[in-house]
Specification:
- With 247 residues, this protein is an alpha/beta fold.
- The chain starts with 11 loop residues before the first helix and ends with a strand.
- The chain is built from nine helices and seven strands; from the N terminus they run ααβαβαββαβααβααβ.
- Helix 2 runs parallel beside helix 9.
- The protein has one domain: Rossmann fold.
- Strands 3-2-1-4-5-7-6 form a seven-stranded mixed sheet, sandwiched between helices.
Length: 247
């Protein structure tokens, strides 16, 4: 990797979701809406799901359905310690998983056998990797036939570069040593990487075109706009969203 990932607090995404700037809260909350629409309907009792680069575990916890088995993977022990506490708490909730695990590893060398998971999440990970196709290949390897891989990454053919500049200036994201984004994607290049890995595209779109800015005026309007962005599969949003299936 090109930066010191251990410099990011383990609970960063959780705090951003619950107590950050209004736009920051919407930004992280919108990803949960994405999980509800694109991933949760395909999971059931016994489903095994893996999040690579889980951070605070927001997406993994949202994707967990009753009786499923979530596995959190990250390089940061701070993140894994925090996610483990959240998964333990979830074990006593109404939508309790059948069990869970946390593993310290990297996406380029997943310590799992082939066909181990029904779903793999890779959210805002590939842009940090010099050879992201290796992690995509590993995700495909551990997926079962018919399993889904969700990938999100900044869209460099959108307003993202401007947003990135503003976020850095306002200190709305953690500072990390080195260049953060070394692999920059647009809709076609992300699609090509997934297809080249032997995956079949199920969903290709983007989120966060107008919706983050509307969140400063009206949260309800922003939520409606986010839903439109998900449904229209536009290529203009600041975050690319792709779901690919292992044939």
């Amino acid at each position: 990797m090109s930066f010191d990932y251990h410099s990011v607090a383990g609970d960063y995404q959780y705090r951003a979701l619950h107590s950050g700037h209004p736009m920051q809260r919407f930004w992280h909350g919108g990803k949960l809406t994405m999980i509800d629409q694109l991933i949760r309907p395909h999971l059931r009792i016994g489903s095994r799901l893996l999040e690579v680069g889980c951070g605070a575990g927001n997406l993994l916890l949202q994707a967990t359905v009753p009786g499923s088995y979530p596995l959190a993977l990250d390089l940061s022990m701070q993140a894994l310690t925090f996610v483990r506490s959240r998964l333990r708490e979830a074990a006593f909730g109404a939508e309790a998983p059948s069990g869970f695990a946390c593993t310290q590893a990297i996406g380029e060398a997943l310590p799992f056998s082939e066909a181990s998971f029904d779903c793999v999440l890779l959210s805002e990970v590939v842009e940090h990797l010099e050879a992201p196709q290796i992690s995509i290949g590993e995700a495909r390897r551990v997926l079962r036939q018919g399993g889904r891989l969700l990938v999100t990454t900044p869209n460099y053919r959108s307003f993202w570069p401007l947003m990135e500049w503003a976020v850095d200036r306002m200190n709305m994201a953690p500072k990390m040593a080195g260049e953060q984004h070394v692999s920059r994607f647009h809709p076609a290049s992300l699609r090509r990487m997934l297809v080249a890995a032997g995956l079949t595209m199920e969903y290709s779109g983007s989120i966060y075109n107008l919706s983050p800015f509307l969140s400063l005026v009206s949260l309800e309007q922003a939520k409606r706009q986010l839903q439109r962005e998900l449904n229209r599969r536009s290529a203009l949003g600041m975050i690319l969203v792709a779901v690919a299936v292992k044939p």
